[in-house]
Amino acid sequence: MITALASALLAVAAATRLYRWWFHRSLTLAGAFIVLACMSLHMLLNIKSVEVTVRDTFGDSMPGSLKMLLVCGICVGTAIVFTDVTSKAGQRRILIRTHVSLSLFTAALSFVFFFSTPWPAHVDNITFDNEYAFLPGYAEGLMLGMTYPFLLCLMVTTVVIVQADWQTLTGRALLLICPGAALLTAYAALRIGYLFAARYGLMEPTPTPFAISRVLAVSGVLFLAAGVLGALALNWLGARSAFQQFTALRDELLERWPGAERESKPGSSTAEQVDDRAAEVLDALSLEVDHSDLPGGEPLPPEVAAAAIADWLVTGRITDGLGYNSFFPDAQTTDTAWAGVLGKAYQGALDENERKMVAGQ
Predict the structure, then answer these.
(1) I need a surface site. Which of 11, 40, 93, 251 has the fewest CB within 10 A?
(2) Which UniProt keywords apply (predicted)?
């Protein structure tokens, strides 16, 4: 039941990424869709009834073959997202082509070895792992199939630990993915190491390494899925929190200047929609200033300017030094951040004005 629910949740998340990618052809959205879709299908194949149906319909080797392909898909999607987030613009497409090429190359070699020996009849995946995986042909195919996932997950884990900045949304998203990448690194390393040792007689075949690796694989995929979904949740919560800071100010300014309201593009993320709402605030504020008699003046410090602007909007008083040039952010401040500063100052001015009115009664 839990596996089915997890598969359905991942499928819904993948659908939302695909919907947004349709309108915004972003590498990050494409990679996230590939990761979530492959995870959903992988979880689906782990349901016993689904696995039996696939095996009876398409042959005994099909469930294992599909899972191998889906692992490669998860790795490619992760590589696309990771590369798009962490690399420089001029290097992204080259690195992504390299990742995709390496994944396809190792997967092709894996299938050449893996299917050169006929799949034993009426054998489930656990029995195959314990009794056949270390045999010639199977072992080489499985080791090659794990080579790219091992290298990728090792790289992701190392780079995230060294470079991720937990103070940023992107950094926190990467840190959420890190445990899953580390577990999948251990999973791939254990399988490769055991298969090599058993294949070439360095140790006796035993089911223990595969039993451990299955736990690592499920845990790693769950952590990776939680990291991807957690990153989406963090971005949504961060955007909603930013919007709440200037909601009252936006309502007031749009009541004065309804023509400043704009529609967000279809498929826009929550963060992009909040950026549009912040732009509405600044557009309406610009119209308000244009129709006032304020001088140009020298820009005031941001906090001083925000307090003076809020007081002007609430009471009509013009603070000394307040002019047109104090109303808009500097080059280092985003529109959304400045709208948030203004919104908090505006709410504070409203509260202060209300206290004075109550005290004067």
Answers:
(1) 251
(2) Membrane, Transmembrane, Transmembrane helix
Q: How many other CB atoms sit within 10 Å of the CB of residue 345? A: 25
Sequence-distant (≥ 6) Cβ neighbours of residue 2 within 8 angstroms: none
CA atoms of 37 and 131, how far apart (whole Å): 31
The contacts of residue 197 (CB under 8 Å, 6+ apart) are 203
Please give the average per-residue pLDDT across 152-173, as a whole number: 74
Cα 305 to Cα 320: distance, rounded to the nearest angstrom: 10
The CA-CA-CA angle for residues 325, 327, 332, to 5°, reads: 90
Residue type, 231: A
Coil, strand or helix at 183 = helix
**Which pLDDT band, with edges at 50, 70 and 90, does 134 fall under?**
confident
Instruction: Answer whether 300's CB lies under 8 Å from 324's CB.
Output: no
The three-state secondary structure class of 246 is coil
Inter-residue contact 292 to 319 (CB < 8 Å): no
End-to-end Cα separation, the chain, in angstroms: 63
- Which one, of 172, 187, 166, 232, lies nearest residue 75 by Cα? 187
- Report pLDDT digits (tens) over 304-322: 888 988 888 888 888 888 8
Tell me which amino acid residue 169 is. L
* pLDDT of 41 over the 60 cut: yes
Neighbours of 293 (CB within 10 A): 6
Instruction: Work out the angle at residue 143's Cα, subtended by the Cα atoms of residues 140 and 144, and round it to the nearest 5 degrees.
Output: 85
Q: So what's the pLDDT on residue 65?
A: 73
Residue type at position 324: Y
Q: Which of 89, 102, 46 is nearest to 70 (CA)?
A: 46
CB-side neighbour CA atoms (13 Å) of 245: 20
- The rounded percent of the chain whose pLDDT value lies above 70 is 92
Rounded distance between C-alpha atoms, residue 242 and residue 234, angstroms: 12
Which residue from 149, 148, 178, 152 is spatially nearest to 165, judged by alpha carbons? 178
**Structure token digits, residue 313:** 């909007």
For the segment 262-297, what is each residue's pLDDT rounded down to a tens digit? 888 887 778 888 999 999 999 999 888 888 877 777
